[in-house]
């Protein structure tokens, strides 16, 4: 009987310890890029995301899929049609590659660069 009681107390105590376990489920937060206080440059920071390694330009090139994302044409092709400066996070040039279901995907930091560039007014800089 005594053994039983001690056993029971041990079980209850271990349950109590387990109840204190806390799993934090943090939402995926993409921090804004640290750009030394400078605006994001379309030519040197955004356009290369599409063309480096032919990531997007394998398909999005002249005569192929629209929008044409090659460096020379990307700006005129995506502004204003694929950019929404009033609601940057709903811009297609941001949502489509970020979806994870498109033919090619971008990293979280690349998504943050694109979003910051749109938020800053989607300038041809
Ligand atoms: C393997 C070919 C392929 C690659 C690589 C590719 N795309 Fe696409 N993309 C397509 C096709 C095909 C469409 C036409 C619509 C569809 O099927 O989703 C499209 C459509 C789009 C659209 C327009 C969607 C709309 O609703 O009008 C955007 C924006 C886009 N792609 C961005 C990108 C970006 C950014 C990348 C690189 C990260 C990329 N795509 C890589 C094939 C590709």
Helix and strand layout, with pairings?
Blueprint: H1 2-19, H2 42-51, H3 74-78, H4 92-98, H5 108-119
Helix pairs in contact: 2-5, 4-5
Structure description:
By secondary structure, the chain is an all-alpha fold. It has a domain at 39-125. Helices cover 42% and strands 0% of the residues. It has 5 helices and no strands. It is elongated and about 85 Å long. The mean pLDDT is 90. The structure holds heme C.
Count of helix runs: 5
The biggest beta sheet is recorded as: none
The strand count comes to: 0
| Shape category | elongated
**How is the quaternary structure best described?**
single chain
Average pLDDT metric: 90
Name the poorly predicted regions: none
Give the key terms.
125 residues, mainly alpha, 5 helices, 42% helix, elongated, binds heme C
Characterize this entry briefly.
Helix content is 42%, strand content 0%. It has 125 residues and is mainly alpha-helical. The longest helix is centred in the first third of the chain and has 18 residues, at 2-19.
